[in-house]
From TrEMBL, chains A, B:
SUPFAM superfamilies: Thiamin diphosphate-binding fold (THDP-binding), TK C-terminal domain-like
Matches recorded under NCBIfam families: PRK05261.1-2, PRK05261.1-4, PRK05261.1-6
Gene Ontology BP, a term: carbohydrate metabolic process
HAMAP family reported in the protein's UniProt record: Phosphoketolase
InterPro entries, per the entry: Phosphoketolase, THDP-binding, Transketo_C/PFOR_II, Xul5P/Fru6P_PKetolase, Xul5P/Fru6P_PKetolase_C, Xul5P/Fru6P_PKetolase_CS, Xul5P/Fru6P_PKetolase_N, Xul5P/Fru6P_PKetolase_ThDP_BS
Keyword flag Amino-acid biosynthesis: no
Pfam families: XFP (PF03894), XFP_C (PF09363), XFP_N (PF09364)
Its EC number(s): 4.1.2.-
Broad enzyme group: lyase
PANTHER family on file: PHOSPHOKETOLASE-RELATED (PTHR31273)
Location of the Xylulose 5-phosphate/Fructose 6-phosphate phosphoketolase N-terminal domain: 6-365
Protein name from the UniProt record: Probable phosphoketolase
Family membership noted in the UniProt record: Belongs to the XFP family.
Length: 786, 786
């Protein structure tokens, strides 16, 4: 075996590793006596023992070895910790290298600081047990597993000098998102992207059960990773000294291989997808921990997963802990003051080369504003409301095209193969779909340097984008509305990260995560029920108001205005829902800007209340509901010329909430001024009606609010039939007005009959012809033209 | 090459395939003239062309070849269609074999029926464009991709004679759930499970972009599947006659291999995980479709994905369509009446061997009631409310253990490695974790015939369980509450399936999908914010009330009662949220049964309104909120002996809705009787407060409702601090009463001070000691004992 480490260096590296392990065990167990200056007693131990030991020594082992190669080659490396439950390890290492005390000065590099370091871990008012936003050097919360490798690739895109090491636990490797994320190597271009070094860490067990990848034969394991397109390198064993030499030799090999790949591609251009190296590290779970506790084997088993000795009142457990801690020989590691001895501290890289201090892991530090074109330049000319038909997302796609063009290194779009389907085809005028796999003649806009990241996995798109944003860049995720639920849980975790990070003083704001949800519930009539679900908006509402924004622009110009706003924003999740089908356009650009700035407002041109008190408020949010509302208004105005209708359109859904609930919420006075204190409100809403109730239930006039929206009546039918099935169509909306406004006179019965007739004409027509009646398909707002 | 098909047979099989392709194209395009008796005209074509041609000919090809081996070996086969967008293919085949006309007699096997078959497809009032619940033989809705292989394995468990063929599209193969589901073979036991034959269908393109697996070298592809533990067999080409021979030879080989594996395991017992065969079928997208349209290559490209000629008004398109249809030589396939010629019809299997008629794909037909023990036998003895401490899910685990024992072939439990963590350890007294991968000494209850399905993938657990249920068996999914969001979207699709299936007359009800959500938001204080999310309940509420049930049993006996109820139910999704920590027990078994039967009710023993009108209603739902409410009641009763408090506990959340919204909803009269018409209600709720508002916003006394619940204030801290941070603790609840009930007299100021003192004592204590004050940890309900 190749032994690259000198006797001196291996001793020092092992000591450094022992120091990290000592600090990790200390964090899990110790309340006091951090340097074991006195014999360990039960009162030195925390009353509640929380944390995960099992994965930690392996994470520490990798860290010290990465430190060596960073120093040796002056590498720019971040460390993505898949098994984020091993929080103590990352905290320990960033403490040893000095980063931790720089960002948290009270955790000083001495005995007092070490005591605080130990106490704060998983302690009220302290730090979480996982690698989290509070942990320097992290871009991956290690609580919910599955996303580390997608994050790692997202971080590497457009970061040519960055090496992203990503430890994948064998538990996490069983998750669905992780299993597909190995294929990210088909989207990484060595010319202008950095490298990802995946380290699959096999320690054999999850919480209780064995892991799949630790229990397949080595030839299958090797085949699997060759099949994924990697060259696997095995580092297996349990003897520390042998493992140090093996890991060092392997790292030397893979670093050389990565540099070769990059050198070749950058000198000669991209020729073919390289076989990137990856490491399979097999080490015992809870390595160096107690061999046995209460007669049961512990090191190397699932019993090391969390806290090997949970009950410290058990006779002998304090002794085991003391021997365990002493096995690391702390007095060799820390000087009298409690500081890491200088010859060991010298093993860590300096300054921003320390993985805890690498600015890529605090992306806001590197974030630059996008170069944005003037969104007004893309405006659809609207001589009169409703007089022009356009496809909103196609117009938006032209803006996005130029954002791609103007920001060739800091902006990408992500989609599960729906960029063209969602009508962003214009981006292919300036870039391509990205693929470093084989490209064959006839492929449509596919190239190894494409900036449109398409893979049929919402998880991958989301994970890549999160990694890209967290390292200080910008992006947009375009998705079918129904299937964005696939990443509900990833959204949860990202929103929680943003929430926590915004309270971590040294973290800088990052670009917002922007979603375009198109091919939405009302225009998935051809794909049917499985493709019809507007509930993502409801889902995002559960997260902190500070990080959530939801927009339902009614037309192309308002979509442009909202898009520009989102691209400039920071630390939010922006959800934009907009249709891709040809639809009437309502607002010229000035009107759109004014409307979007306010977030909601009265459309005087459609109203008949002449600025006075109306008989009824017809509110709408979303493109299809807006069209149906205006069609209903037109019918009502034709049949009841004296009826005073006020039309209110809502773009920014958050305005409906009270100011105490959301910073965008309008005051109760404003709300009353728009929606009246006592008149019926017929609200046509894009999604599940209950959301509008939930947003407004504390408003004065809530008891007069009648919301029409998606009632989970979906199928394969015509677009207009979809709204009819859910009573969101013009006829049902008009009828709702009749039902709620008294004193409309004798015309009511006639109009009711007229509506019945139209609805049965509609049913008959679609059954016969398979498409909507011409008067529906060709409808245009025209009451103002008459 | 081995050529197993005689000239006669290959001709017939090819003709059968052409018939299926003809019927598929007909469904997508034709409105009339189904047998092309007249020259094709634009008016014979549907006005809206919807559907997915690209994947369909491949699906049809596989179908006819499976028919051959089913007949040859009398196999029991179901066909799981991953690329479910190819709906026309499955409809065509089930029509050809006669199943379709049996379940839909109006779609007769003649020209009239064929016209209806064509017209109904993707047509208002007709059938969806995907394989769906309406499609005979299906257990997998093909709209949202990713779940077919998990469904297939779920179907195969405990079905020793069943062969589940599962076509995986190369688009779907990119999804996260699909990527991990290949590893399901480590959980399939040839002794008592059936076989799964995965067929990876490489046709090269998704909607627009190329697929990953079609663009890696063949040696990588082969390595990948060897790494996944399969023996891959390649069937590649585009010449139909060559492909028929190749596919037939390959199917003969893999069927023989499957039978060998099964014979060996059943004769000699399970020795080691076999290398199951799988097929990689590479065929052109839109195979046999138009080679070129408008000068652009179409067959074999992404342009064949949906409708190759979308605009039929384009000159020449009708001609292309006619030539395309004629290329299948329909007059050779169908007789004068429009019926498939008998010598071709004879190729299909008979009766229940037809894949469209296989009862496993209509699981309700095979469903038998579980043999259930009497849940009362597991009751915790409760001499007085609050006098006993127990772990609710541990008690439930004893019941589950005996359900496993009594139903050794029809009940399994599924969990992402959390069975023991969620305190169902008792099940390991009678069974083990399932693994057919390597098992080593020291593994904890792992065996190849275990009935506890643990894999660290919520997607896999959900998919397996859905497949198991859809084929007529029973199961339970136990999961950490926060991470069940990972399968939000799978839940959506299953709930939609149940909704649709309940309206398909020939589908029989299946067992409900039961979730135990434990390790819930209030007891993930040690793992922290990423593990704290009670929002799954909110998510499920968006689906049809008919299929959704949510239970929050406050203690062990009520959990037993609810569990028994759920195990007997059909066609629902039952969500049970229950804690695993030692907690006070409130109801003896009789009281628990009465309470759960009603779903909510007054707890007289805790109330001080003596059955009269109270001053305040203190309502609670969930175990921790119930405990905090009772502790608050105790404090209030001690300090304000004359205050009339009514305690209402809610087990079945759906009772809060009005009867028009949910079948479990109580009447407004009942609601008013419980919650009063005008008294303040302080409601302590397990999850996000808004849900209680959403359920009750139409109730009389809603404006007096004040809900305390999770406000997204999470971290690593003590259990009691978690409730304090969210103002769900006894002190904040008691203070909320003071704030809302007037006339409590001079004691109010003293009590306010007392509360302030307690809250600051708490903060100080946890910062010093890291655990809750003894008075909190040791609190017991005792007011009735004094």
């Amino acid at each position: 075996m190749n032994k690259p480490l000198s006797t001196d260096l291996i001793q020092k590296m092992d000591a450094y590793w022992r120091a990290a392990n000592y600090l990790s065990v200390g964090q899990i167990y110790l309340f006091d006596n951090p340097l074991l200056r006195r014999p360990l007693k039960i009162e030195h131990v925390k009353p509640r023992l929380l944390g995960h030991w099992g994965t930690t020594p392996g994470l520490n082992f990798i860290y010290v070895h990465l430190n060596r190669v960073i120093k040796k080659h002056d590498l720019d490396v971040i460390y993505v910790t898949g098994p984020g439950h091993g929080g103590p390890g990352l905290v320990a290492n960033t403490y040893l290298e000095g980063t931790y005390s720089e960002v948290y000065p009270e955790i000083s590099q001495d005995e007092v600081g070490m005591k605080k370091l130990f106490t704060q871990f998983s302690f009220p008012g302290g730090i979480p047990s996982h690698v989290a936003a509070e942990t320097p050097g992290s871009i991956n919360e290690g609580g919910e597993l599955g996303y580390c490798l997608s994050h790692a690739y997202g971080a590497a895109f457009d970061n040519p000098d960055l090496l992203v090491t990503c430890v994948v636990g064998d538990g996490e490797a069983e998750t669905a998102p992780l299993a597909t994320s190995w294929h990210s190597n088909k989207f990484l271009n060595p010319v202008h992207d950095g490298a990802v070094l995946p380290i699959l860490h096999l320690n054999g067990y999850k919480i209780a059960g064995p892991t799949v990848l630790a229990r397949i034969p080595r030839d299958e394991l090797e085949s699997l990773f060759r099949g994924y397109g990697y060259t696997p390198h095995f580092v297996e064993g349990d003897d520390p000294m042998e493992m140090h030499q093996l890991m060092a030799a392997t790292l030397d090999t893979v670093i050389a291989s990565i540099r070769d790949i990059q050198r070749d591609a950058r000198a000669n251009g991209f020729k073919q997808r390289p076989l990137w190296p990856m490491i399979i590290l097999r080490s015992p779970k809870g390595w160096t921990g107690p061999k046995e506790v209460d007669g049961k084997r512990t090191e190397g088993t699932y019993r090391s997963h969390q806290v090997p000795m949970g009950d410290m009142s058990h006779p002998g457990h304090v002794k085991i802990l003391e021997e365990w801690l002493e096995s690391y020989r702390p007095r060799e590691l820390f000087d009298e003051s409690g500081r890491l001895r200088p010859e060991l501290a010298d093993l860590a890289p300096r300054g921003a080369r320390r993985m805890g201090a690498n600015p890529h892991a605090n992306g806001g530090l590197l974030l630059a504003d996008l170069t944005l074109p003037d969104f007004r330049d893309y405006a659809v000319t609207i001589p009169k409301p409703g007089s022009v038909i356009a496809e909103a997302t196609r117009i938006q796609g032209e803006l996005i095209r130029d954002v791609v063009k103007l920001n060739p290194e800091t902006f990408r779009v992500f989609s599960p193969d729906e960029t063209a389907s969602n009508r962003w085809g214009a981006v292919f005028e300036v870039t391509n779909r990205c693929s470093t796999a084989e490209i064959v003649p006839g492929d449509d806009h596919v190239a190894p340097d494409g900036r449109v990241m398409e893979v049929l996995s919402e998880h991958q798109c989301e994970g890549w984008l999160e990694g890209y944003l967290l390292t200080g860049r910008h992006g947009f995720f375009s998705c079918y509305e129904a299937f964005i639920h696939i990443i509900d849980s990833m959204f949860n975790q990202h929103a929680k990260w943003l929430d926590v990070a915004s309270h971590v003083p040294w973290r800088r704001p990052i670009a917002s995560l922007n979603y375009l949800l198109s091919s939405h519930v009302w225009r998935q009539d051809h794909n049917g029920f499985s493709h019809q679900d507007p509930g993502f908006i409801d889902h995002v509402m559960s997260k902190k108001a500070e990080v959530i924004r939801v927009y339902l622009p009614p037309d192309a110009n308002s979509l442009l205005s909202v898009t520009d706003h989102c691209l400039r924003s920071r630390n939010y999740v922006n959800v934009i829902v907009a249709g891709k089908q040809p639809s009437p356009q309502w607002l010229d650009m000035d009107a759109a800007i004014a409307h979007c700035t306010r977030g909601l407002g009265i459309w005087e041109w459609a109203s008949s209340d002449d600025g006075g008190e109306p008989d009824v408020v017809m509110a709408c949010a979303g493109d299809v509901p807006t069209m149906e509302t205006l069609a209903a208004v037109e019918l009502l105005r034709q049949h009841f010329p004296t009826l005073k209708i006020r039309v209110v359109n809502v773009v920014d859904l958050m305005t409906l909430q009270s100011q105490s609930q959301h910073p965008h919420g309008i005051s109760d006075e404003e709300f009353d001024a728009l929606f009246t204190r006592d008149k019926p409100i017929i609200f046509a809403y894009h999604g599940y009606p209950i959301l509008i109730h939930r947003l407004t239930y504390r408003r004065t006039n809530h008891h007069n609010l009648h919301v029409h929206g998606f009632k989970e009546e979906g199928t394969t039918t015509t677009p207009f039939d979809m709204v009819v099935l859910n009573e969101l169509d013009r006829f049902h909306l008009a009828r709702a007005v009749l039902d709620r406004v008294p004193g409309l006179g004798p015309g009511v019965a006639t109009f009711q009959k007229f509506i019945e007739g139209k609805l049965s004409d509609h049913k008959r027509h679609i059954r016969q012809h398979g498409e909507d009646m011409p008067e529906i398909r060709n409808w245009k707002w025209g009451v103002n033209e008459g």
